[in-house]
Design brief:
This protein is of the alpha/beta class and 470 residues long. The chain folds into 3 domains: 97 residues, NAD(P)-binding Rossmann-like Domain (Rossmann fold), CATH 3.40.50; 203 residues, Mur-like, catalytic domain (UDP-N-acetylmuramoyl-L-alanine:D-glutamate ligase, 3-Layer(aba) Sandwich), CATH 3.40.1190; 144 residues, Alpha-Beta Complex (Protein-Tyrosine Phosphatase, Chain A). 32% of the residues lie in helices and 24% in strands. The chain contains 15 helices and 21 strands. A 10-stranded mixed beta sheet has the order 8-7-9-6-10-11-12-13-14-15, sandwiched between helices. Helix 12 crosses helix 13. The longest helix is centred in the last third of the chain and has 15 residues. It catalyses: UDP-N-acetyl-alpha-D-muramate + L-alanine + ATP = UDP-N-acetyl-alpha-D-muramoyl-L-alanine + ADP + phosphate + H(+). GO terms for molecular function: ATP binding; UDP-N-acetylmuramate-L-alanine ligase activity. InterPro entries: Mur-like_cat_sf, Mur_ligase_C, Mur_ligase_C_dom_sf, Mur_ligase_cen, Mur_ligase_N, MurCDEF_pg_biosynth, UDP-N-AcMur_Ala_ligase_MurC.
Length: 470
């Protein structure tokens, strides 16, 4: 069977079969392959808007995973979530069809773009990828974009440009980003996560170091100068480094911070002590200052003027499932956020608190994501969630994992209560919505938080809030 390394160039491929083609990452690659004139076949567990959109473009997609789906193609592509005993992978082996994982395919695609940018980090990848992509698009650089969420400006999660620029997320899970050959690498931060794969923080720092070491000497590394866990990265880089942040010794520094009533920040920016002017964010949250600075650093490197960036930065209003307003009923605002790590939840709660200040309260419906993450970071989750005025915890969203009986949502409820927080367990969607709605009054905010389908509670919350006499 061929090894992945034998595929020297994407242009050697005429046809592929993609397992899990409806996923956010795989579907983006499918669109690019179709644009390259490659015949795309694929399968997924269920029909979706994503699969229908691909089918409309000419992809042949089967629903369900079975051996008969696999035709005579040049390559089979699978995501990290697809095991070796998947019937389609087994059939490809019998047919002697070579296979590669999604990250390897993206690496091949990136080689077609001389100015490729990989956005890495434990938190903020999707927002930063979207923000940077918009800044380049508004500067008429026409980038190819792969983002892990729905971005209104490109009407989806992928845009195929006709320029040498590409912007993509780069995930550390399973060392996937080590298969990427970007010219510009971004590391937003490093934190404990994906502990079903990484042993500890040191292992995570090491893989980020490997990612940085691969950047070419003529490339660029942009890092968060305020993140202690990333401090080792400049020492392993062979390319120039730009440190962004609030610290005095950062290369691109924000100062004189101000925040409006919606929680959106404005700040002065200096690049190596040269004033670039005052910039404003169009999205709420102090944590987005670093995302904004990182995007500015790369856009400046690619030739966008400070004047143009001052004009366009406030135009970016975020993307779906990132502090996204779902509605307002009985003067209670319902907001959804994809946060599924304690640091992200803390940032989301702080942003929400700022949005309802000075008198409003913040309630949270939290759906934990994966058993391993919930177990490994139980104390940190409880610390963050205890800061809400009340928390409703649903069942854990398993994603790719089996339930080994080691952790339960009620364990998290107990830990929140130990810290003085108010929390209840509500396994059924109707119960979750009813509990949260019963807490809120006019001027408050209810957050649906998690990487699973917790946002689907919005209609139930609307029904409960409208029925309540506040």
């Amino acid at each position: 069977m061929k090894e992945v390394q034998e595929l020297a160039d994407l242009r050697e491929i005429q046809s592929v079969h993609m397992i899990g083609i409806g996923g956010i990452g795989m579907s983006a690659l499918a669109h690019i392959l179709l644009d390259q004139g490659i015949c795309v076949f694929g399968s997924d567990r269920e029909e979706s808007d994503t699969t229908r959109r691909l089918r409309d473009r000419g992809a042949v997609i089967m629903i369900g995973h079975q051996a008969s789906n696999v035709r005579s193609v040049d390559w089979l592509v699978y995501s990290a979530a697809i095991p070796k005993d998947n019937p389609e992978r087994e059939e490809a082996l019998l047919q002697k069809i070579p296979e590669m994982d999604r990250a390897s395919l993206l690496g091949k695609i990136m080689k077609l773009y001389p100015h490729s940018v990989a956005v890495a980090g434990s938190h903020g990848k999707t927002t930063t990828t979207a923000l940077l992509s918009c800044l380049l698009e508004w500067a008429e650089l026409d980038p190819t974009v792969l983002v892990g969420g729905y971005l209104n400006e490109i009407s989806g999660n992928v845009k195929v440009g006709k320029s040498p620029y590409l912007v993509t997320e780069a995930c550390e899970y399973h060392g996937s980003f080590l298969r990427f050959p970007p010219r510009i690498g971004i590391v937003l931060n490093i934190d404990l996560d994906h502990l079903d794969y990484f042993e500890n923080l040191a292992a995570i720092q090491a893989v980020f170091g490997d990612f940085v070491a691969q950047l070419p000497p003529e490339g660029l590394l942009v890092i968060n100068g305020d993140d202690e866990n990333s401090a080792h990265l400049p020492r392993v880089a062979t390319c120039p480094v730009i440190r962004v942040g609030l610290c005095d010794d950062c290369d691109l520094k924000a100062s004189q911070l101000e925040v409006d009533t919606a929680g959106r920040y404005s700040f002065d920016v200096d690049f190596r002590q040269k004033p670039l002017g005052r910039f404003s964010l169009g999205i709420p949250g102090k944590h987005h200052i670093h995302n904004g600075l990182t995007s500015l650093a790369v856009a400046l490197e690619l030739g966008v003027s400070p004047h143009q960036l001052r004009e366009t930065l406030p135009k970016f209003r975020g993307l779906h499932r990132r502090f996204e307003s779902l509605g307002n009923w009985q003067n209670v605002t319902v907001v959804d956020d994809y946060a599924h790590h304690p640091a992200e939840i803390l940032a989301t709660l702080q942003t929400a608190r700022s949005a309802v200040a000075p008198k409003g309260k913040v309630y949270c419906i939290f759906q934990p994501h994966t058993y391993t993450r919930t177990l490994a970071l139980l104390s940190e989750f409880a610390d963050a969630l205890a800061l809400a005025d009340g928390v409703v915890v649903t069942d854990i969203f398993a994603a790719r994992e089996p339930d080994r009986g080691l952790i339960h949502s009620q364990d998290l409820v107990k830990e929140i209560r130990i810290r003085g927080g108010k929390a209840v367990y509500a396994p059924l969607p109707e119960d979750s919505a009813r509990e949260a709605a019963s807490l809120a009054t006019a001027g408050d905010m209810i957050l649906t938080v998690g990487a699973g389908p917790v946002n689907e509670l919005a209609p139930l919350l609307e029904k409960q809030l409208k029925a309540m006499d506040h």
